[in-house]
Amino acid sequence: MTGAGTSPAAPGTRAASAAWRARLERLAPLLLVPALALLALAAIPFSTWVSLTVAGLAMGGIVFMMAAGLGLVFGLMDILNFALGAFITFGAYVAASVLAALGPWTRAEELALNLAALAACGLAGAAVAGALGWATERIIIRPVYGAHLKQILVTVGVLIVAEQVVPVLWGGVPVPVPRPALLKGSFLLGNVAIERYRLAALATGLLIYGGMILVMGRTRIGLLIRAGVQNREMVEAFGYRIRTVFVAVFIAGSALAGFGGAMWGMYHELITASLGGEVLILAFIVIIIGGPGSTSGAFQAALLVGQMANYVGYLAPKLALGSNILLMLAILLWRPTGLLPASRN
Amino acid sequence: MIDAGGARMSVGRAVNWLLSGERVGSRALAWVLAAAVLALALAPFYVPGGRGLAAAARICIFIVLVGSYDLLLGYTGLVSFAHTIFFGFGAYGAAIALKSLGATWPALILGGSLGIAAAVVLALAVGLLTLRVRNIFFSMVTLAIASFFLVLASQLSEITGGEDGMTFQVPDPLGPAARLGELFGLRITGAVVVYYAVFLASALLFLGMLRLINSPFGRVLRAIRENDFRAEALGFPVVVYRSLVCCFAAGLAAAAGVMDAVWLRYTGPNTVLSFSIMLDILLMLVIGGIGSLYGAILGAAVLVLGQAYLQDLMRLASDSTQAWPLLSALLHPDRWLLWMGIFFIAFVYVFPRGIVGSLRRS
Predict the structure, then answer these.
(1) Contact A225, A27 (CB under 8 A)
(2) Helix residue spans in chain B (DSSP H)
(3) Residue A168: which of B133, B139, B329 has the nearest Cβ?
(4) Which domain holds residue A159?
(5) Which residues does B244 contact at the CB level (< 8 Å), separation at least 6?
(6) What does the DSSP 8-state code read for residue A180?
(7) Alpha carbon of residue B235 to chain centroid
């Protein structure tokens, strides 16, 4: 009698089909994004579908940037950081100000100047948000570390205060955010119009995702973070100062959120003080769908959410936000821990 | 011969029965609470115009709303952002019924009951879906669901009046045109009648909440709060009890919503479903004191009075500091929430038990 599992299952046996089913179960989350795209193709004319898909993926890329920090902080430190909305808002406003100050560079038709302006405003947004993140962690969150209720309350307080400080510093009217000259408008592929900025945003999102996967998978700090998400106490028991890792992740997540805010501002070309709070809801949905602590999960979920918002926004505008929430509830029922639980990353 | 000691004792015992034995804990707190309740009871007699009475009615409504939220937070430890949905269900239920079926008592009762029932059903669904996931997930999910209903209310304009909301008439003695004569020197107008209806309803609901948490059911809830594992081991199904608390809290919030609709004769997404209402609830809770229903009374009073009268003070301050534009902008009455936010954060650190806790400690 052969021992169980010592020999590969012969094709056609029950064990083989079970193995296939297991593989399909694992792959299912990865197939959701293309599946949704194909579903939409059935309902939307091709040229519109292409621009909506690009828009959805671009929006997803930007939301991923903001949600990534939130998810890591949540998975690693069990902190629900509502103040991230404040970092996003400040990132967007600071970037808008820098962009306005660099007017000549953005209006010029030269790639180098445009890219420099983009980099400057993005980095400025990230830097300010990172600094705010450091201050928040130090002053606001550290005293209430471990007390979930108080954490939620104080971070909500920070969000409220930030939303009120923005009109004081930048005035109470919505601020326009001009895109650099070379990223304005769209280019035509046949009869399909694709906005340049959206492609740029998508590319940036992919770059950041790739970067995060590299850091998580190939560096020591990434290893520590992944281990910390799985089992904090064990990492501490091995002698690592997980506290330092926490703070670093918090600041990095905040900076990334600020950068995301900057990109979001240029995506919508108009920003208001409540932008952080509004996007925060999308970020929460992404984290819940993707699974907290999982970078790939967050990326998949962000792309899904972006696509959903754009497709439904075209087909039935009234249901756009609701569709994402229904998606979240559906996925919660299917996989309560999220699409790609943190253990996979 | 009047036995003063005996009389005092039986009065005390009567009050204790009324409060279902909920411990006040401090003489100062007792005086403050008594003064607040008395002030609310006699509000129409001494507040000059509509604004003062509106503030008093708002306090009564929020006492019930915040109390129900404290019930949820205090006994399940869950920070729910969906409480405004239940408030909204009650308000919109009454509003839609009164608008479409006419300003009659049966319409009000039907609409109000349907709103409350819908709130309870939604609470049950949300509870069952999310009580099995972690606490923090619960907060995020409720936030998403709350924004869903906010958008829904704005979008279904044929039914809900959309962004602008809906105005409607209320059944007769509650209408503004009613004149019911005079009592103790006070002209009994419709506004006075509605105010006392709201006041009495709030009082009954509040006393009902006290009764609930001091009942055997309430004792099981306390056991679950202290150690849910042990409670489960002792045979109490924790999920069932927690779901029931969610349902009670939702129903009470919806009842507060009905009161709000009747008082304002108007319902709209900004007055019942917006996140600023949720923030108001959190602020009142933290200021009054989490974990004590008496805190709801104090928190609601402080915040509503502050909103009504401090903003005038801020306008004065802002106008007088025009020379320093930054300071003037910070003191502008529109920035009311900035100072409340700072206040709120400070309270969480310095007075985690709120006014009630501080009074009890002293």
Answers:
(1) no
(2) 4-18, 27-41, 43-46, 50-76, 83-101, 105-130, 135-155, 157-160, 190-213, 216-226, 228-233, 238-264, 275-288, 293-305, 311-320, 325-331, 336-350, 354-361
(3) B329
(4) 48-178+186-334
(5) B217
(6) P
(7) 33
On whether the pTM is more than 0.95, the answer is no
Contacts of A325 in chain B (CB under 8 A): 144-145, 147-148
What one-letter code names the amino acid at A345? Answer: N
Give start and end residues of each alpha helix (H) in A238-319: 242-268, 275-290, 295-315
Query: Cβ contact (<8 Å) for A167 and B334?
Result: yes
Q: How far is A51 from chain B (nearest CA, A)?
A: 26
Question: Tell me: the pLDDT tens digits for B210-256?
Answer: 999 889 998 898 888 888 889 889 999 888 888 899 899 999 999 99
Q: How far apart are CA A204 and CA A209, in angstroms?
A: 8
- Judge: A78–B129 Cβ closer than 8 Å, yes or no: no
Interface-testing mutation among B157, B348, B349, with chain A (most A C-beta atoms within 10 A): B348
Nearest-neighbour CA in chain B from A212: distance (Å)? 24
The verdict on ipTM greater than 0.85 is: no
- Would you tell me how many other CB atoms lie within 10 Å of the CB of residue A232? 16
Say which residues have a Cβ less than 8 Å from residue A164's Cβ, sequence separation at least 6. Answer: A273, B335, B337, B338, B341
Token pair for B212: 């609930």
Looking up residue A210, the CATH number of its domain turns out to be: 1.10.3470
pLDDT, residue A4, reads: 45
Tell me, yes or no, whether A109 lies in a domain.
yes
Indicate the number of domains in chain A: 1
